[in-house]
Amino acid sequence: MRGRRAQAVEVRGLIDGLMVVRLAERGRQVKPEDQQQQRKGTHDPQMCWLACELTASGEQEVAWSTGPHAKVAFLCPMPKLILITGATSGFGEATARRFAAEGHRVIITGRRKERLEALRSELEGMHGKVEARRSFILFTSTCATMPLCKRSFPPTGMERDRCAGEQCGPRRRAGPDPGRPSRGLGAHAGHQLKACCT
Amino acid sequence: MSKAVIPGMIARKTGHIINIGSTAGKEVYPKGNVYCASKYAVDALTKGMRIDLLPHGIKVTQIAPGMAETEFRSVRFGGDGPVRHRFTKVWTRCGRRTSPNWCTM
Fold it and tell me: Is residue A176 part of a domain?
């Protein structure tokens, strides 16, 4: 069928075995050979086809692993906001890469600022297109992270699906009590927690 | 950190907190006194938080990794010495993927 094949799949980068690709044109039907032109190494064709299906149905970006235990990961329809402490190395770093590749909004924190900067620039380079709805925020100490947490996880008055970057402030209009500014550690939530503990 | 994020999670009635513990939080080993004590504390903290937060719909999980090739491992086993290579060799032979990237798959 003329015009149904996508032009190409653009390879965005390789993150620890996860190859992130993007369709040249959205909504077009992609065939496995299109991706075979771009990819390196061996993949399970069935897996690639699944990735294509997901892509053709509206997902713009897909990612799949290149390892022997390849499995398809795609940008989840409902990205979550994930706060990772100690993202400068080891498990934290691996987790940050993993969640970022899957399309979640990731907040990385840690003590070593240079490493965080490097990781952030790397992740932003990998996922440049989706950067707008994702935020890689870094802070170098717990004290500096606390206000961020209160903004990113506000107790009241926020819409669940939009809290990235500068949009993550408490939304007073949408809150149940419009006249009252929501505080980070709100008395309401704190009271609930205290009641639960006792 | 948990104090900062929990109120928001309670208000939304959803959330998931994942603490990184260790097998050192399950069993002690020689010369690991303080580290094991800390990781036991993580274990207890996780269980306590779970009891308190489950009614609010917040899940609290602990991950207790065993041997993994992280920076901590190189600190503990003295850099890239022979112990590290022996460790990697044995565990790879056991079929374990010790890289943190594999652990998060």
Answer: no
Q: Is B29 on the interface with A (CB under 8 A)?
A: no
Contact A146 B4 (CB under 8 A): yes
The string of pLDDT tens digits covering residues A93-120 is: 888 877 777 667 777 777 777 787 788 7
C-alpha angle B82-B88-B91 in degrees, rounded to nearest 5: 135
Tell me the pLDDT of chain B (105 aa) as tens digits.
Answer: 788 788 888 888 889 999 999 888 888 888 888 989 999 999 999 999 999 999 999 999 998 887 776 777 666 666 566 666 666 666 666 655 556 655 554
- Please answer yes or no on whether A91 and B10 come within 8 Å at the CB atom: no
Inter-chain residue contact B65 with A65, CB threshold 8 Å = no
Q: Please name which of A77, A112, A62 lies closest in space to residue A92, comparing C-alpha atoms.
A: A112
**Cα nearest neighbour of A84 on chain B:** B18
Measured between CB atoms, which of B1, B68, B71 is closest to A149?
B1
Lowest mean pLDDT among A67-71, A162-166, A178-182, B11-15: A67-71
Q: Phi/psi zone of residue A86: left (φ > 0), alpha (ψ -120 to 50 degrees), beta?
A: left
Complex ipTM above 0.85? no
Of A43, A74, A105, which residue sits at a domain end? A74
Q: What is the CATH number of the domain that holds A126?
A: 3.40.50.720
Domain of residue A91, residue span: 81-165
Do residues A89 and A160 both lie within one domain? yes
User: Contact A154/B11, CB-based, under 8 Å?
Assistant: yes
Residues A102 and A43 in one domain: no
The answer to whether residue A96 sits within a structural domain is yes
User: Quick one: A159 and A96 in the same domain?
Assistant: yes
Nearest to A105 by CA among A85, A127, A133, A128: A133
Q: How far is A122 from chain B (nearest CA, A)?
A: 16
Are residues B101 and A97 in contact, defined by beta-carbon separation less than 8 angstroms? yes
Together in a domain, A91 and A63: no
